[in-house]
Every structure is written in structure tokens, then in C-alpha cells.
Amino acid sequence: MSDANEAANEPIAVIRTPISLDYHYSAGQSASRFLRAIAQGKLLGQKCPVDGRVYFPSRGACPQHGVTFGDEVVELSDKGTVVTFSIVRVPSENIPLELPYITINVLLDGADTILIHVLDAKLEDVRMGMRVQAVWKPKEEWTTSTANILYFRPIDEPDASYDSYKEHI
Amino acid sequence: MAELTAVVGIGQTKYQAKRLDVSMPGMIREAAERALADANCTWKDIDAVIIGKAPDLFEGVMMPELFLNDAIGGAYKPMLRVHTAGSVGGSTGIVAASMVQSGVHDRVLCVAYEKQSESNATWALSIALPFSLATVAGAGGYFAPLVRGYIRRSGAPEDTGIRVAVKDRQNALRNPLAHLHLEDISFDLVANSPMLWDPIRYLETCPSSDGACAMVMEKASLASKRSGKVAWIHATEMRSEPTMFSGRDQVMPRATLDNAAALYKKAGITNPRREIDCAEIYVPFSWFEPMWMEGMLISERNEGWKMTYEGATAIDGDFPVNMSGGVLSSNPIGASGLIRFAEAARQVRGLAEKHQVDGAKKALGHAYGGGSQYFSTWIVSSEKP
Ligand SMILES: [Zn+2]
User: Fold this and answer.
1) Side-chain half-sphere of B185: how many Cα atoms within 13 Å?
2) Quick check: B371 and B243 in contact, CB under 8 A?
3) CATH code 3.90.1150.10 for B5-120+208-223
4) Which of A15, A99, A157, B101 is the most core-located residue (most Cβ within 10 A)?
5) Rounded to the nearest whole angstrom, what is the distance from the C-alpha of residue A54 to the centroid of ligand 1?
């Protein structure tokens, strides 16, 4: 039997059938306002009419109370507190970051929800309660995208107390 | 009043990294036929089929239940697909049970599966949501910060997770179906394994497995006539909650606490630690053992780690957990919840072989999924309620 025949008789265990997906996502009013603001370097949150908590980024409605937010917006600082974190040493095909990297759940000053982002710091320095600030792209590159914020970095402020952020873990 | 229902047949495949010898339909049929054989049934004895699996994006097969219809004997019968993320196996068992409990069907087959070798779950779980940055590498990336939060609030010793991993991996050595059999498992082996998502080490995480699990359930008037051992379903309970809202306790979500309280109330249990003989809990990362001991109201708040430390959760402890080796030893994601439910049933039937807890009469099966936002649980017993 020839090699070609032998190859033909090999059982096929797995075949690859790649697909690609393009999404057309409608932002809606609330996210559109948020994205237009971030193109100006502003971070806009929204208040829940039930408990007054500030959601950032806001998707226009409260997941807990099932009510839509009004038109009132709250401008937030780009400084915040590391609520909790992880150091990631596992690659993923759709995350273009160099390993290892630090992911943080950060509570922006004035917000009552966490944002998951990346921290540029020495691995041994990161800790819960650490104060951080956003590092932005050069102004001329700003678009209607959260990618305007590249990452966070530590700032020279005393750590926040555990009690001030513990309910956001 | 709901019809009393029993598990009368259980079938599982051997869990392993790659089942290249079978297709998806072949793999689930293997589990289903074993469950039918255990129940002393044939395909024609089944009134309806319930199938569960995790997100379609894992294998990239959209609506797999359609092409699996014939393999699970669904042709010309009611067939229903269940999805509740990682907890789906548990929910599949609960939906199947409810089909009988409601009086709609007399005997139902349920099957849950995942073929991770044909999948890239970490990729599928790392897709960027619109307008946010993709930084969370897979489930471990999501849960590691929450584990850190648990350690901070409970003051648990840093090696608690290592102890859980050693215990579950030792239990797996008793279970021939488990994917991972680490003969040389030791504290040092786990402690020295690479840190993947700090504070979660490689040997504190679940593997990627291929496998399927199936169960046959039937109403009491049929099950009572059987000479073989059955597992009576005393109670089932499910809860969900949103992934993110302000002030959400992600470490100890309200949905788990509500779910546990409602489950025990239905089952007439007032002291779960004393009244339940053993539990199979969904622990994909070792720290979730102490977290769900608290989340299932078995331990006092912030003291779940003590159960691990005191050896209570060991197979010879006073509250054995994950006798089969758990999710840490086998993780065909969509099936993982149903495997937990099946192990609880095997224990009370007295058919758990080398991982049998002596005299187990009442057992808890548990699954969770999503961002700790889906919970599925049941209590089964060797005795009727
Ligand atoms: Zn609200």
C-alpha cells in the first residue's frame, strides 16, 4: 500500500472549521452619552433613583432594582481604590497583554460599582486598598471608546481603609 | 402535592482530556446507555429527554441539542435543552426531576456533557463585552480576585486552598472515572505548582475534560416496585441573581444563601451539618470548598476554612465533601453539575464503591455557575421523605 493510501485510511479524529463573528452592537442612549463623554476625557456615571448609588459605566438601568436611570449624570474622578486584584500568568488568545499582568477591580472615587481593569505596577507592590489613577492615551487619539484609558498606575496617596471598600468585593 | 420522584439509573463516561474515539453524539450516548442499563430500562421506556450543556461558544456548535436528538433517544419524544452556565448540569437534573414531580411524565432521562477537547473555554470566557476591556483570562481570572476577598474577610490561612486540593485529589484516586489520578499528590506538590491567577495555583484548579453524565428518574409508584436501590429526591432548589450591581456581595452572593435556606426548608432539614451525611459541591478552584460551606449554611460565616483544616470535609470526616474527587479532578463543564448530583445519588444508593461514605443516607448535590450567580442544588436520600 502506498503512503498516500495509508494516509487516506487514517481515521479523522478532529477537523478544524474556523468561523468568525462580527457584532453590530447598538449602544443605546445611556452608553452613547457615556462614550461621547469619554471621547472628551470625562467619566460619566448615573445614579439609581431607588438607592442613589452611582453606576459606572452605566448601562441605563439598575440591575438590582429593575428601574431605568434618569437623565442626571455624575462626573467621576479618574482616581480610585484597588478593591481586589489578581496577577494573571495564563495566556488567552483574545487578551493582548504581556504576562504576567495585574488585573484590578477598581472603585473610582464617586462610583459605587467596580471597574475591572489593568494595573501597571511592580507585582510585589499591588495590594487591596492601593490608590490608583487612570493613564490615558494622548488626547489627539481619544475616540468614543473605553480604550482611551490604557491602564491604571499607583499614585502617592495613603491606602484606603478596608471598611471604605469592603462591600464592593 | 408533587409526585415523589427517585433516581433509578446513573451512567457516566470515564472523564479524560480527550475522547478522540467518539464524537459528541457517541459520548453522550455512552453515558445514556449506561444510565438505562443501571435503571434496567430501554429507550422505549423513556417518556422525555432533558439535555444540558454549557455555552455553545465553547465547542462552537450552535444548538447542539438539535443534532444530538437521535443520539439521546429524543426522536418523537419531548426534548428540552437547559442552560445555566456552569451550574447547567445541576439545573438539568432539576428540570428532569420537575418533569416527573409535576406529574407530566412517568420516567425521564437527562444527559449533560462537554467535550472540552473540541473547545476553547478560556477563549470563550474571555470575550470582551462591548465598551469594556478584556482582561479576565477565563473563569480563574474572574474568580481569583473574589478568592482574595474571601481570604481577607475570613482570615483563612493561606494554605487552606492547598489542603482542599490535596484532599480532593486523594479522593479521586478512589474513583476510576476521575480524569486526574495524581498518585504522587502531596501538600508540597500543590504548593510548588505554578501560580496561575494569584492566589490560585495550577493544582488548585480543575482540568479540561471530555465526558457525559446521565440519569433516569421515575415516579414513586414505579420506583417503589424496584428491588434495586434508588435515591429519593427530597428537595431541589435553584436561584439566580445579576452578575453586577452596586454592593453585590460577589464572595457570598445572596442567591446562594437564599437557595440554601429554601432547599433545607423543603427538605425538612434544620441542622444541615448534622443531618446531611455527605456533599458533592461544585469546587472548580479549591478555595470554593470553604466558601460554599458558608454559602450553603453548613458552616458559620467566615469559618468554612475551619472545616477543611479540621479534616471535617475529608472522606472519613464528619461532613465528607467531594468524595468523587470533585470538579478539581474532572471537569466536563456542562456535565459537572450533574456529576455532583449523580455522586450524591450514588452515595445514598450505597453504590459509590471505593469512595462510598459508610452509611450515607442523606446527601447534598450542588452546582454553581456564571459569576457566582446561578445555584442549583438537591437533597437525595435512601429513605422516602
Ligand atoms: Zn438600584
Assistant:
1) 21
2) yes
3) no
4) B101
5) 9
Per-domain residue ranges of chain B = 5-120+208-223
Any residues with CB less than 8 A from the CB of B83 and at least 6 apart, and which? B52, B53, B54, B55, B91
Q: What is the CA(B244)–ligand 1 centre distance, in A?
A: 11
Residue B81, phi then psi, degrees to nearest 5? -105, 140
Nearest to A132 by CA among A112, A99, A104: A104
What percent of chain A has pLDDT above 90?
66
Query: Above 90 in pLDDT, residue B224?
Result: yes
The beta strands (E) that lie in chain B are given as: 5-12, 48-52, 79-82, 107-115, 195-198, 200-201, 210-219, 231-240, 278-280, 362-369, 374-381
CA of A74 to the centre of ligand 1 (A): 15
- Name the amino acid, one letter, at B81: R
Strand partners for B86 = B84
**B307 and B149 in contact (C-beta within 8 Å)?**
no
CB contact under 8 A, B245 and A34: no
**Starting from the edge strand earliest in sequence, which strands make up the sheet with B5-12, in order?**
B79-82, B48-52, B107-115, B210-219, B5-12, B231-240, B374-381, B362-369, B278-280
Examine the pLDDT at A167 and tell me if it is beyond 50.
yes
Q: How far apart are CA A65 and CA A73, in angstroms?
A: 18
Single-letter code of the amino acid located at B58: F
Give chain A's mean pLDDT.
90
Q: Measure the CA–CA gap between B358 and B310, rounded to whole angstroms.
A: 20
Question: Do B344 and B231 touch, CB atoms closer than 8 A?
Answer: yes
Q: What is the pLDDT of residues B195-223, one digit of tens each?
A: 999 999 999 999 999 999 999 999 999 99
